[in-house]
């Protein structure tokens, strides 16, 4: 996910979580949203790890 900032990724995760909650209230399936949230959280974690490791190299 090149070109997406950590802040933007956090906003995207929050937006999809809100969509999933709305769909759950209406009794609709949310498995696609859950997969997307999980993938984005993994990407965010990877970005955090990279930023920490690059910070140690300086």
From TrEMBL:
It comes from viral metagenome. This is Uncharacterized protein. The lineage of its organism: unclassified sequences, metagenomes, organismal metagenomes.
